[in-house]
Amino acid sequence: SYRKGGYHAVRVADTFASGRYIAQRKLGWGQFSTVWLAYDTQTEAYVALKIQKSAPEFAQSALHEIEVLSAITNGDPTNSKCVVRLIEHFKHVGPNGQHWCMVLEFLGDNILRLIRYNRYKGLEMNKVREICKCVLTGLDYLHRELSLIHTDLKPENILLLSTINSSKDPIKSKMTPILEKPEGVPNGSAAMTAIERRLKQRARRAVATISTKRGGFVTAPKPPRCLDGIDMNCKIVDFGNACWESKKFAEEIQTRQYRAPEVILQSDYSYSADMWSFACTAFELATGEMMFAPKGTQGFSEDEDHLALMMELLGKMPRKIAIGGRRSKDYFDRHGDLKRIRRLKYCPLDRLLVDKFKLSNTDARELAEFLCPILDFAPEKRPTAQQCLQHPWLNMKNPV
Ligand code: ADP
Ligand code: MG
Question: What's the CA gap between 112 and 281, in Å, rounded?
């Protein structure tokens, strides 16, 4: 992918925007971009630099993302809506072409890394509530004030706030090494070379942590690590796939496990598709496991497996909804029963939370009462983010 039209190759200490930003280490990557931690010499703070692949289709999607991010940032002057902020954007010319670059506020680790860090045990319920509040605040803002659908909400796209720019960062110091700021060090000097070497070593270590595979621990499970005293503030990121409610581009949206039933069946989707992904994400925070992980084995597809898993947990899909989508005929007969998967093993959410995930009866009942309405098969019956924010569950508190 590092060729004409593809990614821009970055090395530690490369500069951007006429020397304003200095690359520190790679933070992550997606299909379209690489994201680097960069030092902003003008504000003397860290930023995230998202560098898009250069081919025209990637440039076009970067411009769309910039348009969305600008609307998001302009509509939130007090920075209180739990969505990432765009600082500026520019074009960078490299050997592979012209790359659109987005300068974003630097945030911390994503929530999936938090779940991994906690050894897939599920987070403490009070922390789950805090994260849910932030995500709902962000969704309410996107939906109600901007008419935007995120379309790819999931733990990877929810980032903890980093306090690296201000003082000590509890998460950073536990999970990834803190960087020193290379201020006032002339390029090419012996001191700068030493800093570069150190940063490279740390970057390598950070990459090693990131590449730890998602999946079970085969040996005896270690107890979850202590996350005490860590404030769970977070923000929604990745607006590359976001769309305006009135101007959708894709029929198939969302990452598989977080995909709403109306998207699978190709009925129409709207803001409520984000709400479905939100409920799947909240479940994963509380249990450490994905709510639906369809596999699609011999004889039936991932879509059919997915629909079956949904019904096993949430009950039979109402016939009108089951047969109402443009793809319904592929999966359902005219009675609204799955064509190829006939025997379903029903297990309601509260029972699953107790039996499989060992939540207390009270925690399980309360969480299920919060989540089940959001997982209504009828999209228009799901509560909005604004309505969810009023739910008493968010303000309950378990004794610590
Ligand atoms: P893509 O659209 O290519 O998927 P994302 O916007 O999701 O790109 O970014 C890819 C990864 O880069 C994220 O999963 C995250 O690890 C990291 N990242 C993105 N934005 C930030 C940010 N503002 N602060 C810190 N890390 C970020
Ligand atoms: Mg992404």
Answer: 10
Q: Is the ipTM of this complex over 0.95?
A: yes
109 CA from centroid of ligand 1 (Å): 10
Strand ranges (DSSP E) for the chain? 15-16, 21-29, 33-40, 45-52, 86-94, 97-105, 148-149, 158-160, 234-236, 243-244
Q: Which residues line ligand 1 (CB under 6 A)?
A: 27-33, 35, 48, 50, 84, 104-107, 110, 156-157, 159, 237-238, 240
What are the phi and psi torsion angles at 354 (to 5°)? -80, -55
DSSP bridge pairs for 88: 103
Closest residue (by CA) to atom 11 of ligand 1? 28
Distance 238 CA to ligand 1 centre (A): 6
Distance 254 CA to ligand 2 centre (A): 11
Q: Specify the DSSP class assigned to residue 156.
A: G
Q: Which structure tokens are listed for 207?
A: 């990459």
Three-state secondary-structure class, residue 34 = strand
CA dist., res. 349 & res. 249, Å (int): 34
CB 196 within 8 A of CB 99: no
Question: Residue 311, exposed/middle/buried by CB under 10 A (0-12, 13-18, 19+)?
Answer: buried
48 vs 26, 89, 104, CA distance in Å?
9, 12, 5
Tokens representing 17 are: 């925007």
- Angle (CA) 27 154 372, round 5°: 160
Residue the block writes with tokens 């409610």: 245
Separation of alpha carbons 370 and 349, rounded Å: 11
Helix axes 125-140, 271-287, angle to 10 degrees: 170
Distance between CA atoms of residues 179 and 182, nearest Å:
9
- Give the H or E element holding residue 82: none
Confidence (pTM): 0.86
- Ligand located closest to 111 CA: 1
List, for residues 102-143, the tens digit of each pLDDT value.
Answer: 999 999 889 998 898 888 889 999 999 999 999 999 999 999
Q: Which ligand is nearest to the CA of 236?
A: 1
Give CA–CA dist 284/214, Å, rounded: 13
Segment 315-336 shows an average pLDDT of 96
CA distance 175 to 210: 10
**Residues designated catalytic:** 152
